[in-house]
Each structure stands twice: as structure tokens, then as C-alpha cells.
Amino acid sequence: MDREAAATHTDNINLFGKVSITSAFTPEGRVYKKELVEYLSTTRDLTVEKIGGISGVEVMIPEATYLVWCDFRKLGSWPKVMRRLKEGAGVALSGGEFFGPAGAGWFRINTAYPVNILNSALDQIADEFKGK
Q1: If we measure between CA atoms, which residue out of 77, 91, 79 comes closest to residue 122?
Q2: What is the CB neighbour count within 10 angstroms for residue 110?
Q3: 58: which strand partners?
Q4: What's the CA gap between 66 and 39, in Å, rounded?
Q5: What are 27-75's pLDDT values in tens digits?
Q6: HEC secondary structure over the chain
Q7: How far apart are CA 56 and CA 7, in angstroms?
């Protein structure tokens, strides 16, 4: 049993995690999961539409996460884009440089936010880069 738990990464789950996993397999948990997936699909699509509408920005549409990767390299250097995001748009995004040189110029947007907050942040980013 210990080997199976280690193989499935369930050997070190705290009580909160165990209750969550157990709850996920109840009828209520299935309803919650369905609603969550629908919500995250909506916020993903909103992000892809608004950020993808910025000229020069390419968006990688995620298939299994709520993190949307966006390529801002055509809009300037990483420091310049980061400064515009923070100072101009008032939004701080996770930079891809943390993941190595290939991530330079990429930023990721967490779409698992309340839609009103996410929508406001997306509008602020779009407004900042509208004129490049």
C-alpha cells in the first residue's frame, strides 16, 4: 500500500487535501467540478480574446490549466514590457524568464480570478498596449 501511495503521489497529502479529494468524488463534487471547468473556460476565452486582440501579442491557448502564456516579445524588451505592465497598466504578471532563457518576453496570466477583477486587468493591459 505504501508503494502505491508513493506512486500516485498520495502518500504526503494533508488532511485538507484528503477531505478535498474525497469530496471531489461525491455527487456534489462532480457538480462543483463541472461548474469550475465551465467558469475557467469562460475566463480563459475572455483572456485569449482580449490579450490576443493586442497587435503584436501572441497567446498560447492552454488545454489543461488556468494559466495563459502570452508572447510580448514583439512589443519590446522584457524589462520595457514589464515596466509598461506595472506602471502603465497597473498589473503585475509572472514573467517567463523564471523558467529560463526561452521564457524571456513571455508572461503568464492567471485566469482563475473573479471575472470582474480579471476583466478589469485585461482591459488595463489592452489599453496600455493599444498604441504600442
Answers
A1: 91
A2: 15
A3: 71
A4: 10
A5: 888 899 999 999 999 999 999 999 999 999 999 999 889 999 999 999 9
A6: CHHHHHHCCCCCCCHHHHHHHHHHCCHHHHHHHHHHHHHHHHHHHHHHHHHHCCCCCEEECCCCCCEEEEECHHHCCHHHHHHHHHHHHCCCCEEHHHHCHHHCCEEEEECCCCHHHHHHHHHHHHHHHCCC
A7: 44
